[in-house]
Amino acid sequence: MDKLLITGSTGMLGGYVMSEVDRNKWSIIAPTRSMFNLDEPSLLYDYIIANNPQIILHMAAETDVDQCEIDPHIAARRNALSTQEIARAARKCGAYLLYISTSNIFSSSERLIFNELDVPSPCNYYGKSKFFGEKVIENSGPSDYLIIRAGWMIGGGRQKDHKFVGRIIKAIDNNAEEIRAVNDRIGSITYAHLLSKFIRWALDNKPTGIIHYSSTGAISRYEIAVEIARILNFNGRVIPVSSPIFPLPAPRPLSDAIETIYLSVMNGAPISGSWREDLETYVRTFINTPSG
Predict the structure, then answer these.
(1) Dihedral (CA of 127, 128, 134, 137) sign
(2) What's the pLDDT tens digit per position in 211-261?
(3) In terms of DSSP H, where are the helices of 174-235?
(4) DSSP assignment, residue 81?
(5) CA-CA distance, 225 to 164, in Å (whole number)?
């Protein structure tokens, strides 16, 4: 039985992936954060070599965009240098490497939506560190790899969703009178549950290259909030605001929305729906999950 090493298995996406992977097909190696410490990149190579996996699914990362901006050393260690060591070890083992990247590597005032052929230009240290990871895999990693760029990730349910969608749902649950959301930044959503199904397909079929995986549509967080309000019959006001209302350390791109031009030729690969369909599916799953 081939060995599959999974980093970031306890994260939001990791929870979905761990419920999807075929344990009858793979011998799963899922190190804890203390065993696979992204703050010590030099030790990651040795860990991988010692376990000699045939496949590596690399999901672990520092995803706090503002923390990466405040302290670029964190972005460098946890995203850039760690991925460099993982890529180097994957090459040594001859492993297939699947890397989860981000739409945040794109930034342009001239484009609304980006496909796999567009050239990245990140505007913050989080995006720069993730793009560094992509380049090091391409240049120094194994011959067989897949880079998946995801949009604004949604998922996790009541227990793990501390992101925008979870906060909006909880505000409505708490009888908020109004919700304010930014309308001058554009992106795409990726439902982690659907992405986990694509990851399982990719582990079985081992496609190579770069793929964008998100729901269709370029949207603002304000539009997301309006849609959640509709789904939950919210009687308060949803107010559009400009991004300076919520000053943050890291600059955000005017748009990092993505679309795919390759997914349609991947026979049998699970696909996402429209952003409204996928958001509603997730919101209804969220509200029907017991708390506690």
Answers:
(1) negative
(2) 999 999 999 999 999 999 999 999 999 999 999 999 999 999 999 999 999
(3) 192-205, 221-231
(4) I
(5) 9
Place of tokens 């770069």: 210
Beta bridge partners of residue 96, listed in sequence order: 55
Q: Which residue has the tokens 């897949």?
A: 146
Tokens representing 128?
């720069």
- Beta-strand ranges (E) seen in the chain are 2-7, 26-29, 55-58, 96-102, 113-114, 145-150, 152-154, 178-182, 186-187, 189-191, 209-213, 219-220, 237-241, 257-258
Tell the residue number behind the tokens 């955000």, with chain if given. 252
**Is there a contact between 232 and 291 (Cβ–Cβ < 8 Å)?**
no
- How many Å apart are CA 244 and CA 227, to the nearest integer? 23
Q: Which helix (H) or strand (E) holds 89?
A: helix 82-93
* pLDDT under 50: residue ranges of the chain: none
DSSP states of 18-65: HHHS-TTTEEEE---TTTS-TT-HHHHHHHHHHH--SEEEE------H
